[in-house]
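Aim 2, interim progress. The first record below pairs a target sequence with its structure tokens.
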Amino acid sequence: MRLLLVAVGQRQPAWADTAYEDFAKRFPPELRLELKAVKAETRGGKTAEQLMAAEAARIEAALPRGVRRIILDERGERRTSVQLAERLKLWMGEGRDAALIIGGPDGLHPALKATADETLRLSDLTLPHAFARVLLAEGLYRAWTVTTGHPYHRE
């Protein structure tokens, strides 16, 4: 199974790329974490609707057919690490890849949000996109370790 992190924005600070890669390489071959960064739409005089629509088209093009769609949104479901581990087990049991989708500065187009299998919230805080990628990678890695029986210090 693959966990695809589909995120708007191709260039991130070096520290974020390094931190993301550190977590991504820890996943086992049977559960790979892969980043698919899509180009953010050029802002020049376009409405938020136009920007989100263009980015949604790029996201759609990056998503494999039949993938589970998990939208990252501030109004999404709150999950603890253990609850995320339970979701990860469910996703793994389905036998299809899962894509976790992070929008651009204006968010995700409502039509793309409507295609979600589920919606997840990382934090109540507004996070820079680079940090959100790292936080998500760490959270998924922690969830995977919980599913493998690794002791979780909060239990």
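The second target in this work package is listed in the same format:
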Amino acid sequence: MEELFENPFIQTAGQYSVAVLALIVCLTIFEFLTPYKNWEQIKAGNMAVALATGGKIFGVANIFHFSILHNDSILLMSVWGAFGFALLMLGYLIFEFLTPMFKVDEEIENGNKAVGFIAFVLSTGLSFVIGGGINSM
């Protein structure tokens, strides 16, 4: 049985499965954090929401990319991925705090593509910074 889990195809499938599940959980958490319904807004053609959500998807996936690269076990991969996701959420909250002249979520919900793009770049950029800090124990 141990040989089965050492097979690189099985390991890759396991890592993929955990990362996809984590992405779904992370997107659900982001859905609760935003005052609007992401997928309804995207379906309606709100490009600002699509950009912000796309950045979050890329950010979480990129964090798990680094977590997979630097950890041998699925447990450590998951722990580092969850920690990275928490940091990504913190970055998004800091973005809201650092823009007191407007509310980020309101602007994105109203279709402000410039704010949506900055949210995309922020999530993407921070995911590389967080990923750079992830290493194996």
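Residues 22 and 28 are 10 Å apart (CA to CA). This observation will shape the mutagenesis plan for the next reporting period.
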